[in-house]
Design goal:
By secondary structure, the protein is an alpha/beta fold. The chain has a single domain, classed as Rossmann fold. A four-stranded parallel beta sheet has the order 3-1-4-5, with helices on both faces. A two-stranded parallel sheet has the order 2-6. α3 links the parallel β4 and β5. α1 crosses α4 and α2 packs antiparallel against α5. It binds FE2/S2 (inorganic) cluster (FES). FE2/S2 (inorganic) cluster binds next to α3.
């Protein structure tokens, strides 16, 4: 929808109503973001971004999967329940999943989790699905930056609890479905958490 299509909210009596004030962004908030990354595409794209010295926020922590089709609703919910401020799946381009429809299933599950979060009063924008190829290092950096800015604007996960490692909890929930981490990616992440 174009920006010009945005309408002022109107009450039942036809009077314009004020929109809820936006939450101020806390400049010190550094979100914890879990990325479920297919090793054929997004994980390789992250490596490429590192090789290209592209910068993206250091807030993201990846969990490598053989295909995003391995990702179940419970894994996404566990990551949020354990306090991740944002979670996204990054799979192959549609039509290019090595398991044919794994990325399509992942998108359905992500959308289902969005609905579940909305029902319990948690912003559905905290969960997302992206598609990219292994050659799209710049796209990987762009998505990581865009999603981090989105979560910074939302603020901390309301169910975050002190002392719970969301990344470890998500990995544990996946069990054998998660692949071992490679040595730390050589990504050029910015210390401030912003792409430069
Ligand atoms: Fe990459 Fe399925 S193999 S999303």
């Amino acid at each position: 929808m174009a920006d010009t299509d945005v309408k002022t909210p109107v009450a039942e009596d036809g009077e314009a109503v004020d929109e809820a004030p936006k939450k101020p962004i806390d400049p010190d908030f550094e979100p914890e973001i879990i990325v479920f990354a297919c090793h054929y595409c997004a994980y390789a794209a992250a490596d490429l971004a590192g090789s290209m010295r592209l910068q993206y926020p250091s807030n993201i922590r990846m969990i490598k999967l053989p295909c995003t089709g391995k990702l179940e609703v419970i894994h996404l919910l566990k990551a949020i329940e354990a306090g991740a401020d944002g979670v996204y799946a990054a799979g192959c381009l549609e039509g290019e999943c090595h398991y044919l429809k794994g990325n399509l299933w992942a998108r359905k599950r992500v959308n289902h989790v969005k609905d579940l979060l909305a029902e319990v009063g948690i912003e559905p924008e905290r969960v997302e699905m992206y598609n990219m190829s292994s050659a799209q290092g710049a796209e990987f950096a762009r998505v990581a930056t865009e999603f981090t800015e989105r979560i910074k604007a939302l603020g901390p996960n309301p169910v975050k609890r002190a002392g719970v490692d969301a990344h470890a909890a998500a990995r544990e929930a996946l069990g054998g479905a998660a692949m071992p981490d490679d040595p730390a990616p050589s990504a050029a992440t910015s210390e401030e958490g912003h792409a430069e």
